[in-house]
Amino acid sequence: MDPVTISIGTGLVVSLTLTELFGLAAGGMVVPGYLALFLDRPLIIALTLGAAWLTWFIVKSLSKVAIIYGKRRTAMMILVGFLIGFAARFVLQFMGTQSGSFDPADFQIVGFIIPGLMAIWIERQGLLETCCIVLTASALVRLVLTVCGLEVLA
Fold it and tell me: Which residues contact 125 (CB under 8 A, 6 or more apart)?
């Protein structure tokens, strides 16, 4: 079985369960499954959380000068998150090839839409609540993967 598929499926179950138990969404249904694959690399998790916060901040700032709400806000969050992730990959890859002192794979953002999905829930629930429930759900998914012998070095 493909561990990534199992991780995403487990993340869906864990996200639904935590939403029902605590009333907090784990940053989008697929987010915990993807983040669980990178929990052994906390810098990548921190960069992803930072990208989500930056996405939220940019869209919130733009909404003061433009009408952004509803579906537009959701699309804008995902688009800005995508652009931040893409730009970060480009810059870090360029820096890695120029300096040769670090591996760009150690400095990345998880997925292309993950920061945008998390930013949507940061807007709805708050930063602390979203980060806590996302990290809890991701840890639970990673625990299930480890117990089932499906832990992957992503």
Answer: 24, 25, 133
